[in-house]
Specification:
It is a single chain. With 423 residues, this protein is an alpha/beta fold. The protein folds into two domains: 171 residues, FAD/NAD(P)-binding domain (3-Layer(bba) Sandwich), CATH 3.50.50.60; 162 residues, D-Amino Acid Oxidase, Chain A, domain 2 (2-Layer Sandwich). 26% of the residues lie in helices and 28% in strands. It is built from eleven helices and 23 strands. The longest helix has 20 residues.
Length: 423
């Protein structure tokens, strides 16, 4: 639980009493900047604010950083092709890739700019591929090139396609090493991290958001209905709600915040399967990232290589119909990969990799994507709400930070810091 907070610029220790009957009786402490959520975006924000000489406290209900979406993704550095021109996703992805590549090179974080091929496997997909090419150019993605089938197959002999879009700027990285570096740099600049510490809500006092904080273990026996009693009321000057999968649920528990501005929450599970061939890591069938044209809810079942050469396919899209608040706060999503889902993978993969053998895919891992649109609805942009939207000073809510969240993380942090501090 929370061992120390910032009080008027000084770190102060205290002991938490037993919960009182009403939150109004809970002890209060002041802090300068609180970042809720120690995922990749929260860590980038904490680092950025600490570089601005702000005293930063990062709270996360998990026992360590990056336990949810940040550690369950493709680890791909996107170039910025897919997203509507001038959208936050387009702007942050293009800017974020440059910041991220520089940061990884500077800090020695394992990464590799291996490039990506987005492939049309039938003539009906070529118009969509052309649209992606034009959109990528509009977004400022560098060195994009359309390839005919022979050019693409010369690069990747196992590939089947009728046309392909080459994105040389795309790549892969070690997300854990990145997060470890962000944590270390933030701590060097004075940031404090408190794990097993849950923010369960908040309320307004004047124009200041007061956070309701308790130990994570308090939530484990919660029935989801009775009012939660905080152990502490934390009074920050700045609050960044970067809690990922629980960001929308938490915002709805900020009493006094206009709930009409909080979009509905949707969740999609994405499973990955790994190529099990004995020599796949030494002689993988592909050297580039291979992506089909995008599908509803995601970018399609694509080929990703990790830095060790292991080939994986995914993610698919499996909508989750109902998510209780306790699942959000405690990250109790079902991350198991059903073996039955592999039957859907083979025909999708064979559209561009026809030589995939039966029985060569084994279950890998799954991740959950926090979405702002549901099945059959148009994809949504990132939503970043500051005082100009909700009227609460010092509060920034980050909603729907899914792909390309990892690539965009440092650009989002840059934007949030400017929104809060100016400049």
């Amino acid at each position: 639980m929370l061992k120390q907070v910032f009080v008027r610029g000084v770190k102060r220790r205290f002991h938490l009493p037993k919960p009182f009957e009403t939150w109004r009786n809970a002890p209060k402490e002041k802090a300068e900047c609180v970042v809720i959520g120690a995922g990749i975006v929260g860590l980038a924000v904490a680092r950025e604010l600490s570089l601005k000489r702000k005293e930063v406290l990062v709270l996360d209900s998990a026992p360590t950083f990056g336990t949810a979406a940040s550690s369950r993704n493709s680890e791909v550095i996107h170039a910025g092709i897919y997203y509507p021109s001038n959208s936050l996703k387009a702007r942050f992805c293009v800017r974020g890739r440059k910041l991220l590549s520089h940061y990884c090179s500077q800090r020695g974080i394992p990464h590799n700019q291996i490039g990506k091929l987005i492939v049309a496997t039938g003539t009906s997909e070529i118009p969509k591929l052309n649209q992606l090419f034009n959109r990528g150019i509009q977004n400022g993605v560098e060195n994009l090139r359309m390839l005919d089938a022979s050019e693409a197959i010369k690069m990747e002999p196992e590939l089947h396609c009728v046309k392909a879009l080459l994105s040389p700027a795309s790549g892969i990285l070690d997300s854990h090493s990145l997060m470890l570096s962000l944590v270390g740099e933030a701590e060097t600049n004075g940031a404090t991290f408190s794990y097993n510490t849950a923010v369960i809500g908040g309320h307004l006092e004047g124009n200041q958001m007061v956070l309701h904080v308790c130990e994570t273990k308090t939530l484990t026996n919660w029935d989801g209905n009775t009012p939660l009693q905080p152990d502490l009321l934390l009074m920050p000057i700045i609050v960044v709600n970067s809690s990922g999968l629980s960001a929308l649920t938490l915002a709805k528990r900020f009493h006094g915040l206009n709930t009409a501005i909080i979009p509905p929450a949707y969740y999609a599970r994405g499973s990955y399967f790994i190529l099990s061939n004995a020599n796949s890591t030494r002689h993988p069938p592909f050297k580039h990232l291979i992506y089909p044209v995008p599908e509803e809810g995601g970018l399609g079942v694509h080929v990703t290589l990790d830095l060790d050469g292991q080939l994986k396919f995914g993610p698919d899209v499996e909508w989750i119909p109902h998510v209780p608040d306790t699942t959000n706060f405690l990250n109790k999503f079902d991350y198991s990969v059903s073996v039955d889902r592999v039957a859907r993978f083979y025909p999708e993969i064979r559209k561009y990799y026809p030589n995939l053998k039966d029985g060569s895919l084994i279950p890998g891992y799954a991740g959950i994507r926090p979405k702002l649109h549901g099945p059959g609805q148009s994809a949504c942009d990132f939503v970043i709400q500051g005082e100009d939207i909700h009227g609460v000073g010092g509060l920034v809510n980050l909603f729907g930070i899914e792909s390309p969240g990892l690539t965009s993380s440092m650009a989002i942090a840059e934007y949030v810091a400017a929104l809060l501090l100016g400049g």
